[in-house]
Amino acid sequence: MTYRLHFPGDVFDTYKQLPGLARRDLALALVDAQEDPLVNSEPYGQDDGIIRTVAQGHVTAVLLLGHDTRTITVLTIAYAGTT
User: Fold this and answer.
1) 23 phi and psi, to 5 degrees?
2) The model's pTM
3) Beta carbons within 10 angstroms of residue 55's beta carbon
4) Are 17 and 27 in contact (CB under 8 A)?
5) Are the CB atoms for 57 and 23 separated by under 8 Å?
6) Sheet containing 51-56: which strands, arranged edge to edge?
7) Cα dihedral 49, 51, 53, 54 sign
8) What pLDDT digit, counting tens, does each position of 26-37 carry?
9) Residues 6+ apart with CB under 8 A from 36
10) Can you list the positions of beta strands (E) in the chain?
């Protein structure tokens, strides 16, 4: 049940600007989410099964799950560490 990952251009630019460890942490969280996004993510606000979050280390991302298309779109990335 692997999902395809989609980064809008501006969000991918944010990802590329993260420090190395934060990029690695987010990549690991996203790989897990691709395998089973409902198990490997948390609800964002009300649990509608569509908008979810993943977090690892100092980085968090908000995801949009497209169950019909098996797509995960990364909506935004937040980094709480130092550069």
Assistant:
1) -60, -45
2) 0.93
3) 15
4) no
5) no
6) 4-6, 71-79, 59-66, 51-56, 42-43
7) positive
8) 999 999 999 999
9) 1
10) 4-6, 42-43, 51-56, 59-66, 71-79
Confidence (pLDDT) at 5: 97
* CA separation for the pair 65, 71 (Å, rounded): 6
Domain count, the chain: 1
CA distance 52 to 37: 8
12: domain CATH number is 3.30.2310.20
Residue 83 has pLDDT above 90, yes or no: no
What is the span of the domain harbouring residue 49? 4-79
β-sheet bridge partners, residue 55: 60
pLDDT bin (cut points 50, 70, 90) of residue 82 is confident
**In sequence order, what are the residues at sequence separation of 6 or more whose Cβ sits closer than 8 angstroms to the Cβ of residue 46?**
none
